[in-house]
Specification:
Shape: elongated
Number of strands: 20
Structural class: alpha/beta
Helix content: 25-40%
Strand content: 25-35%
Distance between the termini: 35 Å
CATH topology of the largest domain: Spore Coat Polysaccharide Biosynthesis Protein SpsA, Chain A
Length: about 375
């Protein structure tokens, strides 16, 4: 029987705020495509054809509108009306599941390799096992479910242990397979409470089931914070692009002493970020657009040793349409805070959007070179 999969996309995305206030994190554009596209594409590559997407009432209509996105898959949809955790979300998909096992993939993480394919294969080959869980070593165990082992067998998944109490450093990645009947039997009669949810295979383990880990050593992004949009872009970059850095709200250049002493100066993190872009093998050309004072911005950049062209960005709601018409940039680094305009606007025009909202984002950009994996 063909492998069935459930994509969990009902999370509130609190740590992604303010971006996720208006855009579900599963639909945030990464390199021109909604993030969930990469999740579904991984499953299609793993030859999974039947996929159930479980989401909340407010997000599901937007996810439905995307459809299969040209992938050779069949989609069903289920609603989780209350945020009671992933095990409760899986119960909403029960009516669509007919196979002996199900592959579960969280809709907000992706790896550079096809981890769902590896997990599905391991589940088919395993004997006497009720669950296979993809694991990856992490330093910050407080963000994840952490595996406790007895030898090479997983005996417990401890949710977000405090530093110093973690049973290991092997985190559940949000990709796992379970025997369908084993899981639904293990949650029979369970009362789910907000904030007290457990990792679904943990219910199987508590009911006497057996689980094994699949250790993944590669790069992985869990879309937990806004800076993870940039990490995902770096992970998924596969081709050389032109890049335009847009100062959407005049934060590129800090004013010295109220603008009276020394004039505008380039924010140091941004100088390093632009330099990383300019020296990247992934970029064919780089532009910086400023809403005003383009000449001053050019001088500041050159004083910082950055020889890039500064363009005068058009003002108004159609700014991205004008930029696309004039310069045809494929990739846009936006420093701004109007997410409907500065994130979704350029994405609709086919631009690859990297949204910068805080210094942490710039520090990350300054430390990476896009395209090395291409």
């Amino acid at each position: 029987m063909e492998t069935e999969a459930v994509v969990l996309a009902a999370g509130e995305g609190k740590r992604m705020r303010p971006v996720s206030d208006t855009v579900p994190k599963e639909l945030i554009p990464i390199l021109g495509r909604p993030f969930i596209h990469y999740v579904l594409a991984r499953l299609a590559e793993a030859e999974v054809r039947d996929i159930v997407i479980v989401s909340s009432e407010w997000k599901l209509p937007m996810i439905k509108e995307l459809g299969t996105q040209g992938l050779d898959i069949r989609l069903s949809y289920a609603v989780q009306r209350e945020p009671l955790g992933p095990a409760h979300a899986l119960l909403q998909a029960k009516q669509f599941l007919r196979g002996e096992s199900m592959l579960v993939y969280y809709g907000d993480n992706v790896a550079e390799d096809n981890v769902p394919l590896q997990v599905a294969r391991s589940m088919r080959e395993a004997e006497g096992v009720d669950s296979v869980i993809a694991l990856r070593r992490v330093e910050d165990t407080s963000r994840y479910g952490i595996a406790r082992f007895d030898g090479d067998r997983i005996v417990e998944i401890v949710e977000k242990p405090r530093v110093g109490t973690e049973p290991s450093r092997m985190a559940a990645m949000g990709v796992y397979a379970m025997r369908t009947e084993s899981f639904f039997r293990s949650v029979r009669g369970v009362t789910f409470e907000y904030g007290k949810e457990q990792f679904p295979p943990q219910y199987v383990l508590k009911a006497g089931g057996r689980a094994k880990g699949l250790n993944y050593p590669g790069n992985w992004v869990d879309m937990g914070k806004p800076v993870d949009m940039l990490r995902a872009s770096a992970l998924l970059a596969r081709e050389r692009v032109s890049c335009l850095v847009l100062d959407a709200d005049t934060t590129l250049f800090a004013q010295g002493d109220g603008g009276r002493v020394g004039g505008p100066r380039l924010v140091p993190e941004l100088a390093r970020a632009i330099n990383a872009f300019a020296s990247s093998n992934a970029l064919e050309e780089l532009f910086v657009a400023a809403e005003s004072r383009a000449e001053a911005a050019q001088a500041v950049l050159r004083a910082a040793g950055l020889h890039v062209d500064v363009l005068r960005a058009p003002l108004g709601p159609n700014r991205y349409g004008e930029l696309a018409r004039r310069y045809r940039p494929a990739q846009v680094l936006v420093v701004g805070g109007d997410y409907a305009r500065d994130l979704l606007g350029p994405a609709r025009l086919g631009m690859h959007v990297l949204l910068v909202t805080q210094p942490e984002d710039l520090r990350f950009l300054a430390s990476v070179t896009f395209g090395d994996k291409g």
